Amino acid sequence: AQSVSQHNHHVILSEAASLELGCNYSYGGTVNLFWYVQYPGQHLQLLLKYFSGDPLVKGIKGFEAEFIKSKFSFNLRKPSVQWSDTAEYFCAVNRNTGKLIFGQGTTLQVKP
Amino acid sequence: DGGITQSPKYLFRKEGQNVTLSCEQNLNHDAMYWYRQDPGQGLRLIYYSQIVNDFQKGDIAEGYSVSREKKESFPLTVTSAQKNPTAFYLCASSIDSRAPYNEQFFGPGTRLTVL
Question: Contacts of residue A45 in chain B, CB cutoff 8 Å?
Fold first, then answer.
């Protein structure tokens, strides 16, 4: 079955630490990749997306993600996290069907 | 103020009752979606609609029903046949589901508790 896996379910970091959240998907062919974020009490919103071109994608708030086709991965990174980055992060994949398949989500807690 | 509204924010129902969750968008988007969010399971697609008067089942459609009579509205009914209805329900829309790189925009969600 098609699936999206986020290996880290709960991550705790101190401010200024670097962040990398893993995302892997299980199927080949053309894919479109997304990272969404859900801040406490707020709507789910798009952080960044990849559908073609440069595999290193930059998003809002200093986040970036790298698409590595050979590894079926789309990991999210940020060099230095802030307390305000505390949120739940979701990786999602669209296989040209219009439907998004979401990973399980990763809860990030940043300690001030 | 453009966006997606969902009402109510919190909803309580007795077991065996049907309940309808509202979703309205003023973004002029063609496609609309309903997801269910459970802890540790991410978002799972219940139903989606690409155009008015048309909708398709998602991955977990059993026990749910929808309608799409207007472009702006996509209500979801949780029926008594849904075995585990207590969850957080999210509605989303996108310009066109046939352009898969289009992002989906999400509403604030409705938390349904069945007692």
Answer: 106
Burial class (CB in 10 A: 0-12, 13-18, 19+), B75: middle
Q: What is the pLDDT of residue B25?
A: 97
Please give the structure tokens belonging to residue A107. 């809860």
Cα distances from A110 to residues A16, A60, A84, in angstroms, run: 9, 18, 8
Q: Report the pLDDT value the prediction gives residue A34, as an integer from 0 to 100.
A: 95
Residues A72, A78, A80: CA angle, nearest 5 degrees: 155
Q: Which two tokens mark A53?
A: 């071109």
pLDDT in tens, B34-60: 999 998 889 999 999 999 999 999 999
3 state SS of A69? helix
In sequence order, the 6+-apart residues with CB closer than 8 A to the CB of B79 are B18, B63, B64, B65
Which residue type is seen at B107? G
* Distance between CA atoms of residues B83 and B66, nearest Å: 17
Residue B100 to residue A51, Cβ atoms within 8 A: yes
Contact state of B44 with A104 under an 8 Å Cβ cutoff: no
- Scan residues 45-104 of A and list those with Cβ closer than 8 Å to B: 45-46, 49, 51, 90, 92, 94-104
